[in-house]
Amino acid sequence: MSPMSQLKSIATALPDHKISQEDVLAVLAKARGAALPARLKQILGNSGIAHRYIARDPDYYLEQRSWPERAQIYDEVGRALAGRSATAALEKAALRPSDVDAIVMISTTGTMTPSIPSRLIEAMGFRQSVQTVPVFGYGCAGGILGIRLANDLADANGGQNVLLISLELCSLSYDYSQFDKKNMIATALFADGCAAAVLTGKAGQGEGPSFRAFDQKTWPDSRDMMGWDIGETGFDLVLARDIPTFVAKDFTPFCDQFLSEQGLEKSDMSEPACHPGGGRVVEALEDYFAPELPGIPATREVLKHHGNMSSPTVLFVLEKLLSSNPKRPVLMTALGPGFTSVLGILDPAGAD
């Protein structure tokens, strides 16, 4: 099988404000005006997260914020993170901004018109003719769906250099005016971050990891599992409790079929790059991969130190895995709004 596009680089960027789970519990108690119930404190403390990064100081999130205020932070912080990660990814790939033919931007926690890629053209020195593709709505599945879209663009026009940027500022949706269990769990789980990747379909690039295949599936009658409602001050989270059950019941046969179609067994694979979701989702994924694969430590490590950043999270995991030069194919997995599962396979450099 001839390879699809080649992955030249991945780079990541984080906002300045680091917050531990202990800090989050204290902030939630402060917002509530009383100690947290023991059961809720246990749930939040067992998330698998030690600390995360957010766009603003924790006390900022205790204040009422309008939609324009949230949009201003998305513009300021989001553009800075996108620029930093894109610059680093291009440097790692030994490419200049003028070498880029298309920029794909994945984000579901904010939006701008003109888009962030359009605003980066002059600031970073991209060609005026560069194609910009801003994509909204993929949510937690956006990292791999973005890679799939970037891969298709890299294969177009006889081969192109494509820059993928995956940016999420999940903290902008924290809302203490709706002090219910769902919002508290979201506050203890979701975080901010950005990742960029460079893909190329141009010939003569030498050896490097390349994509083999992708697939996705959207299940019927599942829209209420994950997404946004439009609220008074911004996006309001929709999040079901039974996603780990979904992994065991619905994701498992879909992934089995995908691997079978590629002529692969789980035992043929390197450690997978999974969007972690949360601690219970990671456990459900580990149950699926066991015993052929002993665990998904890179996924756990990213969740521990970064939380669930939505779409860029799986790119953080993939960056970590590629640093150890895996010799076997890497399966990429994510679940997101729809409710949608997306899968991909990255073959290491030199694979047939």
UniProtKB/TrEMBL annotation:
Pfam families referenced in this protein's UniProt entry, alphabetically: Chal_sti_synt_C (PF02797), FAE1_CUT1_RppA (PF08392)
FAE domain mapped to chain residues: 40-203
Top-level lineage group: Bacteria
Keyword Transferase: yes
Coiled coil: none
Gene3D superfamilies named in the record: 3.40.47.10
Keyword Transferase carried by entry: yes
Keywords, comma-separated and alphabetical: Acyltransferase, Transferase
Domain Chalcone/stilbene synthase C-terminal: 216-329
Family as reported in the entry's similarity comment: Belongs to the thiolase-like superfamily. Chalcone/stilbene synthases family.
Identification of the protein by name: Type III polyketide synthase
Organism: Parasphingorhabdus litoris
Taxonomic placement: Bacteria, Pseudomonadati, Pseudomonadota, Alphaproteobacteria, Sphingomonadales
